[in-house]
Amino acid sequence: MSTERGWVAPRPGGSEVFELVEIEVPDPAVGEVTIEIRAAGMNPADYKHPRGAKPEQLPVRIGYEVAGVIRAIGPDTTIASGPVSIGDEVIAFRVSGGYATAITVPAKDVFAKPENLTFPEAANLLLAAATAADMIRVTGVHPGETVLVHGASGAVGVSLLQQFREIGGIRAIGTASASNADVVRQFGGEPVEYGSGLADRVRAMAPEGVSAAFDCVGTDEAVEVSLALVEDRDRIVTIAAQHRAADDGIRLVAGAIPESAAFRDSVRGRLIDLAAAGTLVVPVARTFPLTQAHEALDLLESGHPGGKLALIP
Ligand SMILES: NC(=O)c1ccc[n+]([C@@H]2O[C@H](COP(=O)([O-])OP(=O)(O)OC[C@H]3O[C@@H](n4cnc5c(N)ncnc54)[C@H](OP(=O)(O)O)[C@@H]3O)[C@@H](O)[C@H]2O)c1
What angle do CA 99, 35, 114 make, to 5 degrees? Predict the structure, then answer.
C-alpha cells in the first residue's frame, strides 16, 4: 500500500466539487499492476459523469485513461499486450481514478505504450479512438460514401476522420468553427462551419447527399441537420445527445452501454497498433500540472480546448 494524491468528487457535482486528496493505492494482487502515472488523459466525461453519482459511488475517483510506468506487478501477471517488467511504459484504459500520482488496475486493461507516442498523447488515445470506432461500428460506414461529422475538430472528431482514412474511400464533411477549419483539413476532412444555415452549406458541398452522420457535439442543430440530410435514422449516431436518441430513433453509443463497452475493450489493441504505425495521431493542445486540474477542466468545459489536454503528476 502507498499513499498517493488524486482528484475525487466527494459529492455529486461537476468539476467545481473536485478535490485533490490523499488516496491509498493498494499493492497489486494477482492480475493487477501498479502504474506510476506520467500523464492523465482528460475527457468531457470526467466532469459530466460525477454529476449523476449515487451515494454508494462516492467519492468518485476522476479520470478514465492514463499513461505511465510500471511500478509493481502482481504475482503471475501479464498485461493485455503480453509480458511486463518493472519500468515498462504503458497505457491503461478504462480505469477509474486516472487524475492521480499512481493507480493499481486490472492488468487486462494495460497495454505497452508505443515508443513514438509521448505520455500525454498515449494517455489521450483510447477513450476518443474507441468511441470513434464504436460510432463506425453502428453506422457500418463503407468506402464510396459521403458522411457528415459534427465536431470534426474535436478529440473524437479527429479520430473519426483518421479512422475513415484508414478504411479508405470515405468523403467526410466535418463541422468546426472557422478557426479550426485547418484541423479538419489536416486529418482528411472537408470543413464546414457550424451555425445557422449548416444544412444548406452541406447540401451545396454534397448535392448527391450524405448517407450517414456522426454527432460528436450533441446540440439540437447537429441532430436536426443530421435528421434533415440522412434518410436512414439507423445511420445517424450521437455520443452526446442522449435524449434525442430516444426521442428521434437515432443511434446512441456510450461506454455505459454493455455492447459498446465490450466492443471498445476489443478494439484497444488495434487502435494502439494504428497509433504505433503513425496512422492515428493524438493532437495534444496543452498539459497542466496535476494540481491544476480545475484550470484544465475550465478549458475543457469551454467546448473549444483546441486538442487534447493532459495532467502531469
Ligand atoms: N458517448 C460516449 O461514449 C462519448 C465518448 C467521448 C466523448 N463524448 C462526448 O462527445 C462530445 C465531444 O467530446 P470530445 O472529447 O471530442 O470534445 P472536444 O475535444 O472538446 O471537442 C468538442 C468539439 O465540439 C465542437 N463544438 C463546440 N461547440 C459547438 C457548437 N456550439 N456547435 C457545434 N460544434 C461545437 C468543437 O468545435 P470548435 O472547437 O472547432 O468550435 C469541437 O469540435 C462531448 O460532449 C463528450 O462528452 C461521448
Answer: 95
Q: Does residue 275 lie within any of the structural domains? A: no
pTM for this prediction: 0.98
**Rounded to the nearest whole angstrom, what is the distance from the C-alpha of residue 302 to the centroid of ligand 1?**
10
Is the domain of 120 the same as that of 141? no
- For the CA of 179, the nearest atom of ligand 1: 40
Specify whether 146 is located in the same domain as 249. yes
**Predicted confidence (pLDDT) per residue in 250-302, tens digit:** 999 999 999 999 999 999 999 999 999 999 999 999 999 999 999 999 999 99
37/69 same-domain check: yes
* Ligand 1 mutation target, pool 94, 156, 243, most atoms within 8 A of CB: 156
pLDDT one-digit tens code per residue, 77-92: 999 999 999 999 999 9
Q: Give 89's Cβ-side CA count (13 Å radius).
A: 13
